[in-house]
Structure to design on (1424 residues):
């Protein structure tokens, strides 16, 4: 950065600093939820959001209508609004302390019934005012007053939050000449970038992939000769000269050109015209592409197939080059040399002119709501008017958003607190089965249904990869894929091999697999524009036409037909997992040895708290999600398995846990005795279709088969009821009260290529509970909370909690922030609507034929999400938690800078809990009035959700368990 | 016209039904009679079903009557206007080709309607979408059925209008709306030639009815004029099929929802070029120059579209250009006289392209699940397996193709730019003569920000 003293500009440090504002996004094939503003986590949440919205030009909050609507639905509490007003800096002045209550009331009413001010010259509401006698009298008095103070309010400054950094020359040309500067050179650049970053979409690959982004771009401009937008063509001498520059020289050259051309830079108010700010804005104009280039440069292992040479520095050079050229061409065209207007543009002078009538209107409205306003002292009146002018929509919506956030946080905290003080009088029954799910919030509902259907079932949750940090290679895919959280580096490779009873069939399978893969590619590449396609089109049209009609009108049948054909062609094969530890030629470790297996199993069992109370069946449930025609498919998968299905993890875990050798080591080393009758069942729950797959049913010992069948039926029924609970959000009236209909409906949704909303994913997530199931049993959490099983009584040192937090908190914060930002401004932080999206270069999507690479989630995924920050509740001892937070820098940032809310519920202290507010953990007593009004409901979850649309508050379900209040 | 002629009534209904549907639909929307989305789609499907039945009825009746497939019905409805001998006669013509094309339209519209029912659910503009599809159906129907080129031109323009409105479907994005202008500009530039052709026909032949023009075409005395007329008409039909030189607008036209892009630029709207040629086939069947001209345009467009499609790395552009490639080959087939091969090719192309467009978002899953796709994989595509250096010439062609051969810039700089500069000169002259009110100018300055910076509402 240029420092005033040394005057030394360092390009490297500028680029490193600018990288922080580029959005973090992964190529779409490995989409993972993450905090888009990950690099700003060292700032306070509010500051980071303010900075990001300023730089991205995004909205800071949702619309005021939204919040008023939520207020009517009782989703925002009055007390939080009043606290928000009290904390608003413009609220109180020392001079008017004695009127504080009235003041608070006044602003509160201004919040609930906002002032409608029309900036047109002729008011329609003056007529309405004239009708009412009293109102008209007040109007005349206000008019007299306002004319006396009008000189003070003639020009008022704009809310600094609204000022976004922009390039004034682009704005000026747009507004005065209708010239959209970006349209002039963006298409050229985007066409080039999409071909350079291509991973195999185009039949003809880029021949210049190794010469570097800059050099290829210069060749591209030169080769196109005059067929470019005006001002961008390169002459031969220029081309040769520029081609010889290194990227750093090129960028410095362009920076010099900015100064030489005297381009008016940006700046807000009277600040310095900063060239770094200008360059940073240039980098962020096409932030999707810049972010992807940044990702490929920094983490080349993420590239799906082949990466070319590229760097953010070269991209910046290219962009500045195009901008400068366009600037010089346009300024010549419109004959604007150096006399760029210095008038009141958006970012420079931010003042608004108020007319006297408008001022009178404001005073009039104040008088209506604040009694005897005109009789107060002059200074007080002037000050009030100033404050009301400052209390504009931006400030109001920020107060609304904060209140919304805190209300939902408190709802969640109070619900958990209420539940945990209920005493459980139920006698301990024998446990007939235990289920271990993933921590995903979508599994919260199926756990409830399962527990209601069969009182003898206990459910737990562990992170969905079940401790198995592996790369997994299936028989269909020769390339191993990560099946562990993105923060964990996989340490093993585990592959699936075909049981070699029939070598012939294996050979046929291999060949068929290869042929089908090649045919798929051939159809992809050749069935477009190629000389083959002339024949292919005519030959294949009937088949494809009929298949298309089938897929659109009868998606389920088409799906079944495809599956059937696949099985017929490939044949059903018996496969086996290679788990024995060995090292292959490349040094890759394969499999786990028995000690490691025991360690993994013991870890999960200990985290869940299943150590001495084993039931005959322990179901390990992974989850997957099926959808068609969905570029964000991996966003619906198991986040703990990097967006893939948790199926192999579950299978491997059960295989390990069922082994006698492993159980022996568990007994000897970890003191966990698994009884001989216990069997680990491996299953996978498809969250979109709500179907369960049982993977090792054939290994169940025959004596327990009948009990197993009963529990299996319970599980399947729970999944069906789950689909009914999920169907509420689809606004499909038929399926909201019929289990069978909703189950059929969700299957169709998942198989239909015309459905942009196969499921709603992590919509409405607002909490994460890390603790025992018994603590919150009975709570209806409306699928809004992640649940992690953790037994604080078994973990006095906090070691297990430390491992858990390191895995759970970053994942959960990433998911929450992704949804939050994409909901806040879907055009700037999200991908907009899914309909015009166009897959580009196999790494991302553009809107239409040539636009910026879109970041974030699409509108169809987040439209129902209520954007609040997540509340993580830890059932543990406060001191242990404090020690653990300090150890992990990322968690420390997240908590201290308020990106997430954290509360600690100590199991030994039931009457209160600790909430992290401002800078420390504060003891909070539960709201007594809340405890009295918290709804207890007699009935099952299905009774709560049937026929009910919209958000449901948290309830406490009294099922047959006799729970009475302990307090 | 006195006797109750089934053909007459059938063709009349066939032509009028989609138009009536548009009016009924507008009434429904204005008065809010139907609010449920799926009922609207059923209404459209009902319309398509009735058209299908009518079509089948007319076709089977006539085929049984004539015992052959090469019959041709000409049904006249009188004059649109007639001033001293110059006028337009409304006539429909129905034959086997019309049967095929109307069936194609019906099947594809029903597919897209069913697709859009869930796809456009909760989209702002759901009703607008179906209105535009309805207008498109009515216009396409007219183009296929009309015997009179004036009527064809009206429908032709309407299709261009709906095409532009569907590209600009998301009108809150300024970039989208500006991109739709490219389609409008290309359509307009060739519409000029179309209108000149029609005027020429009125002056020289005093008619624009195809069946009457065919009579002129068979007389050697009119060969010269017919040649000019056909050439003008063909240039008028080039933009819809994105043939040379209107080759660059599809790159910018993929801004609308996938279902409309599929229907228009995959299947039906691009096929209008060949359909126009097929309708007028008898006019230039004996004119070698015209056929050479069509062939030349096709042979220039085909390699360009081929290369652009092979080089583009975003799915929809690739598909649009492969559709255009096929269209140019279809035009070549028409030039060679292989009419029925062209029709078959056209229908096949329509189905395949729609399928590829509608499942275009599935590409990522298809690739990542394919065993041959992994980091460092050598896919069996040109040049990636072989380790050779591309020559300078190959790289130049590659770079040109990435830019789409620069035709949009060419048109912008050389064609439109000239006109725009004239307009700017006029505007700046106006500024000199008319002094703007200073208050208005201040107001303009304050509204420099697009949104209202400050309001208390």
């Amino acid at each position: 950065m240029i420092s005033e003293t040394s005057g030394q500009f360092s390009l490297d440090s500028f680029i490193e600093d600018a990288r922080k504002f580029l959005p973090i996004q992964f190529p779409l094939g490995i989409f993972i939820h993450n905090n888009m503003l990950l690099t700003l986590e060292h700032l306070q949440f509010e500051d980071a959001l303010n900075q990001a919205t300023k730089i991205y030009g995004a909205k800071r909050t949702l619309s005021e209508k939204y919040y008023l609507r939520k207020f009517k639905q009782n989703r925002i509490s009055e007390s939080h609004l009043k606290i928000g007003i009290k904390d608003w800096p413009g609220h109180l002045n020392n001079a008017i302390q004695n009127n504080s209550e009235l003041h608070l009331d006044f602003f509160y009413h201004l919040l609930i019934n906002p002032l409608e001010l029309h900036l047109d010259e002729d008011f329609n509401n003056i007529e309405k005012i004239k009708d009412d006698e009293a109102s008209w009298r007040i109007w005349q008095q206000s008019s007299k007053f306002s004319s006396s103070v009008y000189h003070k309010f003639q020009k008022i400054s704009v809310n600094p939050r609204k000022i976004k950094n922009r390039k004034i020359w682009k704005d000026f040309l747009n507004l005065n000449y209708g010239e959209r500067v970006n349209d002039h050179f963006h298409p050229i650049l985007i066409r080039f970038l999409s071909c350079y970053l291509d991973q195999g979409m185009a039949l003809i690959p880029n021949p210049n992939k190794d010469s570097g982004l800059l050099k290829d771009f210069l060749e591209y401009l030169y080769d196109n000769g005059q067929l470019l937008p005006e001002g961008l063509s390169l002459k031969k001498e220029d081309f040769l000269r520029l081609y010889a520059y290194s990227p750093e020289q090129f960028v410095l050259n362009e920076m010099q050109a900015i100064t030489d051309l005297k381009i008016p830079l940006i700046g807000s108010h009277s600040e310095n015209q900063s060239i770094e700010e200008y360059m940073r804005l240039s980098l962020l104009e096409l932030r999707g592409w810049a972010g992807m280039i940044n990702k490929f440069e920094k983490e080349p292992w993420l590239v799906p197939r082949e990466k070319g040479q590229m760097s953010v520095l070269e991209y910046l050079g290219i962009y500045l080059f195009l901008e400068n050229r366009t600037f010089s061409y346009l300024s010549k065209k419109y004959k604007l040399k150096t006399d760029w207007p210095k008038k009141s543009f958006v970012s420079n002078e931010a003042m608004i002119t108020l007319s006297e009538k408008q001022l009178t209107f404001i005073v009039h409205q104040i008088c209506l709501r604040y009694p005897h306003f005109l009789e107060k002292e002059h200074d007080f009146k002037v000050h009030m008017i100033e404050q009301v002018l400052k209390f504009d929509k931006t400030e109001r919506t920020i107060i609304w958003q904060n209140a919304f956030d805190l209300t939902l946080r408190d709802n969640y905290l109070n619900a958990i607190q209420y539940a945990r003080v209920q005493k459980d009088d139920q006698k301990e029954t024998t446990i007939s089965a235990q289920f271990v799910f993933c921590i995903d919030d979508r599994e919260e509902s199926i756990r409830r249904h399962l527990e209601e259907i069969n009182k003898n079932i206990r459910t737990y949750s562990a992170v969905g990869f079940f401790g198995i940090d592996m790369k997994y290679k299936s028989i269909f895919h020769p390339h191993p894929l990560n099946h562990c959280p993105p923060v964990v580096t996989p340490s093993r490779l585990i592959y699936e091999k075909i049981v070699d009873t029939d070598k012939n069939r294996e050979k046929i399978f291999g060949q068929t697999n290869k042929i089908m893969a090649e045919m798929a590619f051939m159809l992809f590449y050749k069935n477009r524009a190629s000389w083959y396609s002339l024949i292919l089109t005519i030959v294949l049209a009937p088949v494809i036409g009929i298949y298309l009609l089938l897929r659109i009108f009868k998606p389920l049948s088409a799906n079944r037909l495809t599956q059937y054909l696949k099985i017929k062609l490939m044949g059903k094969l018996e496969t086996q997992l290679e788990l024995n530890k060995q090292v292959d030629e490349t040094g890759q470790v394969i499999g786990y040895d028995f000690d490691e297996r025991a360690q993994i199993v013991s870890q999960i069992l200990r985290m869940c708290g299943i150590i001495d109370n084993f039931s005959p069946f322990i179901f390990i449930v992974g989850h997957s999600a099926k959808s068609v025609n969905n570029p964000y498919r991996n966003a619906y998968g198991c986040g703990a398995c990097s967006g893939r299905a948790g199926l192999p993890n579950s299978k491997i875990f059960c295989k390990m846990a069922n082994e006698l050798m492993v159980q022996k080591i568990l007994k000897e080393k970890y003191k966990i005795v698994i009884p001989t009758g216990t069997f680990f069942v491996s299953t996978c729950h498809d969250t979109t279709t709500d179907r369960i797959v049982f993977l090792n049913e054939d290994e169940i010992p025959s004596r327990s088969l009948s009990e197993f069948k009963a529990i299996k039926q319970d599980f399947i029924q729970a999944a069906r009821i789950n689909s009914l609970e999920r169907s509420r959000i689809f606004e499909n009236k038929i399926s909201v009260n019929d289990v069978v209909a909703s189950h059929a409906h969700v299957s169709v949704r998942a198989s239909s290529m015309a459905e942009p909303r196969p499921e709603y994913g992590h919509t409405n997530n607002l909490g994460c509970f890390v603790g025992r199931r018994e603590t919150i049993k009975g709570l209806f959490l409306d699928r809004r909370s992640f649940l992690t099983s953790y037994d604080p009584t078994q973990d006095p040192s906090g070691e297990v909690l430390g491992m858990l937090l390191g895995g759970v908190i970053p994942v959960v914060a990433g998911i929450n922030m992704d949804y939050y930002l994409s909901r806040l401004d879907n055009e700037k932080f999200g991908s907009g609507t899914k309909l015009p999206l166009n897959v580009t270069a196999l790494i991302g999507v553009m809107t239409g034929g040539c636009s910026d690479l879109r970041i974030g989630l699409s509108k169809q995924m987040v439209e129902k999400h209520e954007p609040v920050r997540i509340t993580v509740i830890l059932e543990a001892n406060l001191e242990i938690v404090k020690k653990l937070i300090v150890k992990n820098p990322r968690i420390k940032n997240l908590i201290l800078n308020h990106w997430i809310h954290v509360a600690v519920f100590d199991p030994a202290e039931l009457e209160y809990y600790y909430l992290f507010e401002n800078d420390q953990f504060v003891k909070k007593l539960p709201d007594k009035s809340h405890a009295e009004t918290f709804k207890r409901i007699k009935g099952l979850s299905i009774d709560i959700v049937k026929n009910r649309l919209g958000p449901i508050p948290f309830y406490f379900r009294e099922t047959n368990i006799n729970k009475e209040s302990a307090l | 016209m006195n006797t109750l002629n089934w053909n007459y009534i059938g063709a009349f209904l066939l032509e009028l039904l989609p138009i009536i549907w548009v009016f009924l639909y507008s009434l429904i929307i204005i008065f809010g009679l139907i609010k449920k989305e799926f009922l609207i789609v059923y209404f459209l499907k009902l319309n398509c079903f009735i058209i299908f039945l009518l079509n089948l009825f007319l076709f089977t009746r006539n085929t049984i009557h004539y015992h052959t497939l090469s019959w041709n019905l000409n049904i006249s409805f009188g004059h649109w206007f007639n001033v001293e001998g110059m006028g337009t006669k409304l006539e429909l013509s129905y034959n086997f080709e019309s049967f095929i094309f109307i069936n194609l339209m019906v099947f594809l519209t029903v597919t897209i309607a069913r697709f859009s029912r869930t796809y456009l659910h909760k989209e702002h503009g759901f009703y607008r979408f179906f209105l535009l599809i309805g207008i498109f159906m009515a216009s396409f129907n007219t183009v296929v059925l009309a015997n009179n080129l004036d009527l064809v031109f009206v429908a032709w323009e309407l299709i261009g209008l709906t095409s532009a409105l569907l590209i600009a479907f998301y009108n809150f994005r300024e970039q989208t709306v500006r991109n739709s202008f490219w389609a409008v500009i290309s359509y307009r530039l060739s519409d000029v030639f179309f209108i000149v052709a029609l005027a020429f026909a009125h002056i020289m032949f005093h008619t624009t009815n195809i069946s009457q023009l065919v009579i002129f075409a068979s007389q050697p005395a009119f060969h010269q004029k017919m040649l000019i007329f056909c050439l003008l008409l063909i240039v008028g039909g080039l933009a819809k099929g994105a043939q040379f030189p209107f080759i660059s607008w599809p790159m910018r036209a993929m801004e609308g929802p996938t279902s409309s892009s599929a229907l228009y630029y995959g299947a039906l709207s691009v096929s209008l070029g060949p359909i126009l040629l097929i309708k007028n086939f008898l006019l230039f069947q004996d004119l070698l120059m015209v056929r050479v001209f069509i062939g030349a345009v096709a042979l220039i467009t085909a390699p360009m579209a081929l290369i652009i499609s092979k080089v583009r790395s975003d799915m929809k552009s690739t598909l649009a250009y492969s559709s255009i490639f096929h269209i140019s080959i279809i035009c070549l087939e028409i030039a060679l006289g292989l009419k029925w091969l062209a029709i078959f090719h056209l229908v096949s192309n329509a189905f395949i392209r729609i399928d590829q467009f509608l499942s275009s978002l599935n590409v990522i899953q298809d690739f990542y699940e394919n065993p041959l796709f992994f980091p460092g994989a050598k896919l069996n595509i040109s040049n990636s397996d072989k380790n050779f250096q591309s020559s300078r010439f190959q790289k130049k062609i590659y770079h040109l193709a990435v830019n789409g051969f620069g035709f949009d810039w060419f048109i912008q700089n050389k064609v439109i730019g000239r006109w725009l500069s004239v307009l700017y000169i006029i505007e700046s002259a106006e500024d000199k003569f008319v002094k703007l009110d200073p208050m208005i100018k201040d107001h303009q300055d304050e509204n420099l920000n697009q949104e209202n910076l400050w309001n208390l509402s």
Summary: The longest helix of chain B spans residues 174-205. The radius of gyration of chain B is 25 Å. Chain B has two domains: 2-363, 405-456. Chain B is about 70% helix and 5% strand.
